[in-house]
Amino acid sequence: MLSTDNRAELGDILTDMRGYLADTPPALSLPPAAYSSSELWEVERERIFNRSWMLVAHVDQLAETGDYVAVSIAGELVMVVRGGDGELRALSPICRHRLMPLVDTGAGRTDALTCQYHLWRYGLDGRLRGAPHMAGNKDFNPRDCRLPQLAVETWKGLVWVNLDRDAEPIGAHLDLADEDFAGYRLEEMVQVESWSQEWRANWKLASENGHENYHVLGLHRQTLEPLVPGGGDLDVRQYSPWALRIRVPFAFPAEAKSLPLNEVQRANLSVLWTFPNSALAAAGERVVWFGFIPQSIDRVQVLGGVLTTPELAADPAARDQTARLLTAMINDEDRLGLEAVQLGTGSRFAQRGHLSPKEQPGMLAFYRNLAAALVGHRSGGG
């Protein structure tokens, strides 16, 4: 049960968030307590993470029977696995007997899911295949025992999961971006790099960071500032409550020898965000995807990969260019910066900060979607 002080703090946070739903929202950051409140975290688990789509993989990681990826979404373990029938399934990999996880977080390949506690075994479709010495329990029917299935969807090669099996499909929202992302041939791209990291920061800090480019001035002076200057103006387009596009001007046009990109696409980094924490960033002939999977109040798992055209994936010189892009975009600069900010949110002197005009369009769009999910009238799913 919440103490009076904790209840008051949560109420103050949600009251501040309601301000972002106004026609003229305050150009201020979230209250510092929003990044450390255990009460807000529980509300987020219920109203956001239990009903939102999370980007967890590219289909190239799940190409063969038995290939799987497993993630923990705010404490709930989920796996996506390629079945023998070729279908992708999202399952809760928690043994139905005594609740031991059948897999660890990460990626791998298996022909069956076996619990190491009592050797109960499940097929890749989640059905129970073996339960030693259970025949003597007359109340137990193995045909009724199977791992719970969750929602899974593939959109242009990217794999999404949702804890809500009845969630509204995410594809209908992402399809609204087709015009802006036409020419990238997303469905034909192949994955050439992938990664998984843990950052000691609240998930909202990671999402905020991706909704503005202003921080490039400081955190990425040598890496990204020469490519996508932090002083550029953002162009933000909200397709739906669940999907928006951010354009960030390049310092110089990107090459596009293998893609029919238009002038706007060559001139800008185009980022497609899916609320609350998934993104793909199209930079010329390469696309980088991110999934910021919440682990706890101050931990976020950062999943991602680099996609490119089959032609460039087979070209050694192009692979070197991809490696340089990866080094520029995926490094410790964001992690170290956000982990420092997380520490700063705990200061007794911390307060809401005024947002620069360079960060307002993206940050306020994220805050508006966050407020709609927590205190607005948004329905579940999608």
From TrEMBL:
It comes from the Bacteria. The keyword Metal-binding applies. Keywords: 2Fe-2S, Iron, Iron-sulfur, Metal-binding, Oxidoreductase. Its cofactor is Fe cation. The keyword Mitochondrion does not apply. One of its GO terms (molecular function) is oxidoreductase activity, acting on paired donors, with incorporation or reduction of molecular oxygen. InterPro entries: Rieske_2Fe-2S, Rieske_2Fe-2S_sf, Ring_hydroxy_dOase_asu_C_dom, Rng_hydr_dOase-A. PANTHER family: CHOLINE MONOOXYGENASE, CHLOROPLASTIC. This is Diguanylate cyclase. It comes from Mycobacterium shinjukuense.
